[in-house]
Amino acid sequence: MFQIRWHARAGQGAITGAKGLADVISKTGKEVQAFASYGSAKRGAAMMAYNRVDDGPILNHER
């Protein structure tokens, strides 16, 4: 398994990027997760998005 962590400011497209990457990777037959972690929902606030990729089922659903 490998994980990717995206650091950005809200509104810069990190969530869209993580979801787009997950769509592409899922077409290769791998299991993938994409999710975000952010505080207040306002433009410019610090946030992180994550991808998790593995050949088999991903049992970890934590950050």
Characterization of the model:
There is one protein chain. The protein is an alpha+beta fold and 63 residues long. It contains one helix and three strands, in the order βαββ. A three-stranded antiparallel beta sheet has the order 1-3-2, with helices on one face. Strand 2 and strand 3 (46-54) form a beta hairpin.
Summarize, please:
By secondary structure, the chain is α+β, with helices and mostly antiparallel strands. 21% of the residues lie in helices and 40% in strands. It is elongated and about 35 Å long.
Structural classification: alpha+beta
What is the alpha-carbon Rg in Å?
12 Å
First-last Cα distance: 14 Å
Please give the order of strands in the largest beta sheet. Answer: 1-3-2
Mean pLDDT level: 92
Provide the helix percentage. 10-25%
Detail the poorly predicted runs: none
Q: Sheet with the most strands?
A: 3 strands, antiparallel
* Total helical elements: 1
What letter string, H or E per element, gives the SSE order?
A: EHEE
Tally the beta strands. 3
Shape: elongated
Strand content: 35-45%
Comma- or semicolon-separated keywords:
63 residues; alpha+beta; 3-stranded antiparallel β-sheet; 21% helix; 40% strand
Please outline the helices and strands.
Layout: E1 2-9, H1 14-26, E2 31-38, E3 46-54
Antiparallel strand pairs: 1-3, 2-3
